[in-house]
Amino acid sequence: MSQPLLTENLTKTYQLGKKKLPKTALDSLNIEVPEGIIFGFLGPNGAGKTTTIKLMLDFVQPTSGSATIFGHPTTASSARSLIGYLPEQPYFHKFLKPIEVLSMHAVLAGVDRREIRKRAISCLERAGLSDYIETPIAKLSKGLTQRVGIAQAIVGDPKLLILDEPASGLDPIGRHQMRDLLLDLKNEGKTIFLSSHLLSEVESICDKVAVLKKGKMVAMGAPDSVRSSSSHVVIHTSPIDQDMLERLRFLNVSINRQSDCTVLTIDPKAIYEVMRAMEEIHLPVYKIDTQRESLEEAFLRLAA
């Protein structure tokens, strides 16, 4: 079967202001999303993530390049029928109940009329809304409304899910349940394209990630390959005064002063020199660890 999502030199340039000055929001994007994975799409605000999603959904047209969904052009209705979509800020009419929202979306997705209510209830339950099926949207919190959005994205049993900040508004319990749901959907063979700023969540569930910066892709691969292979040493010690701070900074140590301790981040090559300096100024070692760059640190290095 064709790739769930493929872009080839996908580019979008807008004409801004009265002078129609060109602004390139996306510049020659090439990504391949294999089937049955969770693909994390990362970048700071303004990097081009939302523009990419709009192009995939045929909400806007590319300036050049192309994108396909399972081999279908994004302009084809056959492509859109394969997608479940959650926007960053889902909106539903306040007077509707979740069961009514899901039933309407099930009809639009072509679900057999005899299965609509059963499918709607099942998706609401999977999204953690068993107790709110008949509660008007107006009475739901932002987090519960977000769960309705997640439920509507899966009600049509799509092959590809495009989710824009799915954990927005969710509390820690909700994020945990959302993560479990995405992993379940992946195990059912769904492909998930996930745009998120919660990098710890992305690192825990994504098989592959891409990082955008100013419309250009600057990294793509498994989270482990995007992170730097180098490691650093982290030492927890007692609170330090200004003189100690200056002496350690002279050794090119990253210092994080906290209320009850000081955290030193050190290049492994400098560990002996730093330890010698700590001994001379009588700084104790509370804890020492070796850490590799996290996905969040890699993101800051690549996209900042």
* CATH architecture call of the largest domain: 3-Layer(aba) Sandwich
- Protein structure class: alpha/beta
Mean pLDDT score:
91
The portion of residues forming beta strands comes to 25-35%
Characterize the overall form: globular
Helix segment tally: 11
- What do we call the CATH topology of the largest domain? Rossmann fold
Low-confidence stretches: none
Oligomer: single chain
Taking the sheet with the most strands, its summary is: 6 strands, mixed
Order of helices and strands: EEEHEEHEHHHEHEHEEHEHEEHEH
- Tell me the domain tally: 2
Please give the alpha-carbon distance between the first and last residues. Answer: 37 Å
The neighbouring-strand order within the major sheet is: 6-7-8-3-9-10
Q: What do we call the CATH homologous superfamily of the largest domain?
A: P-loop containing nucleotide triphosphate hydrolases
- How many individual β-strands? 14
Q: What integer value in Å does the Rg equal? A: 24 Å
Helix content: 25-40%
CATH class of the largest domain: Alpha Beta
